[in-house]
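Project standup — Tuesday

K.O.: blocked on the structure for the chain from last sprint. Re-posting the sequence here as requested.
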Amino acid sequence: MKKQIFIVFILFANLLFAQNGNDKYTKLLKDWVNYYDVPSLSAGVASNGKIVWTGSYGFADLEFFVPASPQTSYRVASISKSFTAVAIMQLVEKGKLKLDDDIRKYLPQFPKKNWVFTIRQVLNHTSGIRSYKNQAEFDSKVNYETTSDIIKYLASDTLEYEPGTKYLYSTLSYNILAAIIENVTGLYFDEYLKRNIFEPAGMKNSYLDYYNQIIPMRASMYTRNKKRVIENAPLVDHTFKFPGGGIISSIEDLLKFGSSLLNNTLLKQATIDSMLKPTILPSGEKRNYGLGFSFSSEESKRYYFGHTGSWHSSDLQIYPKEKVVVVHLMNFRDRNPDNPSIALAHLNFKDSVEYIKKPVSDMFFNVTTKFGIDSVLKLYEVIQQDSNYNFSKREWMYLANDLLVNNFNQDAIITYTKILEEFPESADVYLGLANAYLKDKNEGLALKNFRKVLLLDPKNLQANNQVKKLTGGQVN
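H.V.: unblocked you, prediction finished:
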């Protein structure tokens, strides 16, 4: 009976997906979900201010078989920074803020530091405010009732460097911007976003992601454990990072947000242009990150700006010349760095036909843990000419690392050795092999391979430390 219900829900999800239109887009979404084994993927394209296609495939909730839809609200992760940046720039346009003022002018409760830092420096990640201390802080479960509470938490931190001299991507720093918005406007951060961004843009499914509130059509979030099995993502209290990574939204809403920037509903064009200037450090290093937005390099075939979310679980791409917006959202975080919005953009602009290839790392991992690495190598001999599979170095490295994490040390050693046959001058592969030998208690071969790492990458800190440790302080 359960199996029959599951099949019905799958058929319903497929029907919902198919009703959204264009075959070339929908096939890409379906292939992506099936090949990468993600719970759901929603995506869309807008052109000249109109949504021309949206599609969803998979389940917003795996336990209750709830199909995803274009109205499903997903965590947008760091796209949240773009909302906060737009809010700040609206206040700049109204003359209520100046970007190069000391933040303490608008946030006097924040204690004085060794150096002054400005609103601009917070926006472009050169303020010196730290990033997360560790994974536990990233997945914080502490509830902060107000923006002031999180500001108090951050207030005791020293700056990591002199502001303006370095770039350090910091989600936490955007809390300062939310506090400034609240001080200047007298509105709570979420109320400001609702009145000045969400409602003017026609966004109806965007909220701060309070885990304990009932939010319509919110997708559940998933991840993989070390055995590569899908499980519920850790419970996170996003009050810790609303302005930099704690907003949820839908495909339709993000398309409207991008279109509202293109038609200057939210900001003047001159203001947007000022947000899209590269950040140039005193060293001459250039970052293609401006004020709450990143943007493509000068070498790119087509210029776009926008923002991605963690592990490419979300992406917003805005093409100003073509007046096109491309968006995707997934309720999944994993190590795979592939980005479906890039493939969708290629299809939209007819730059190329994107053929999604099946990643082999998880398939090979399952075979290895059941039958051994020899079975994987035999399987590889059979399917290596099949163009439907992705046999990239990255996939083999994922396999080797997964085996090592799960204590299949000998199988990991064999896998790293195989990778070296094709990539003999790769410091990262030698580093993995050295760690595998070390975990297998073969210090002699571990030392040999750590030294090989240093020949290829003399500044590799881990290899330097391990060589010193294994030789009693001698690097050479």
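K.O.: great, moving the ticket to review. Residues 2-18 form the longest helix (17 residues). Residues 1-19 have pLDDT under 50 and may be disordered.
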